[in-house]
Amino acid sequence: MFEAIAFYLFAFLTIAMFYITVTTSQALYALTALAAGMIFISAFFFILGADFLGAVQIVVYSGAVMALYAFGMMFFDTTRELKEKKGNKFLITGLASVAAVLIVVIFAAPIVGDNITALYPMTEGVGNTQEIGMVLFTKYLVPFELAAVMLLVAMVSGIVLAGKKMDLSLTLMSDAEIKDMRKEKNKKVLS
Amino acid sequence: MEIGLNHYLVLSTILFSIGLVGVMRRKNLLMLFFATEILLNSVNIAFAAISHFYGDLTGQMFAFFVIAIAASEVAVGLGLLVVWHKRHNNIDLDSMSTMRG
Lengths: 191, 101
Hints:
The complex is a heterodimer.
Chain A: H1 2-23, H2 27-47, H3 51-73, H4 89-113, H5 128-136, H6 141-162, H7 175-190
Helix pairs in contact in A: 1-2, 2-3
Chain B: H1 5-25, H2 29-53, H3 58-88
């Protein structure tokens, strides 16, 4: 009973928030609606018993990703009204529906075929976080490490792309060049 | 009334179509990224629901990797967007139709 109430409440809230995100013409409204939608999605994870996933969802999405978007938006002119693509509305809606039905088929095909067996079944009396730790660090150790390397590469590329004077390398420059660069920088600051 | 796997799959499908509509009608690249996040999140719900109703942890594992990929995508994408905005002073998709440097 309570599960049904929670499900319908959060389903309505999530759909409403994401609808605002894709339809509003203000970038800041879209950002805040998306952040709220992410938090509401974590509620589904808690309902489904995936506690650790819900916590990660709040920390990573509402914490890291949204903060990154907020800082990124400081670079852009967000007060300007967004222009929309003027395309065929029926085409867009039709394509979206077809793709959505395709997704359902992809997910439902193995269920209809009824040959799903649990690869890593949940054990009784063990917390969700503990279970995930056990599976992640034994069966999924290599993908975990690859994800770590991928995040490192993404971090380095983010710094290099957004930072200033990243085309220069201090280790490849001579001392005199570095001194010149510092002098120029000080001149700019003082003037 | 019991909430079953189908409820979650339908919800995931609705969210996925909202994200797809967003991807197709938006012109601003930042809004396009937002729509991509919606797509990834809707699939995560489906993964978590299947993981719960079949008593299998694999779905949750994949949801974790999807979250990791989304985080790195945002970092690289926003970096590229900042570079583009510095150079051209807008982030509209129409200004990126040519590939000259």
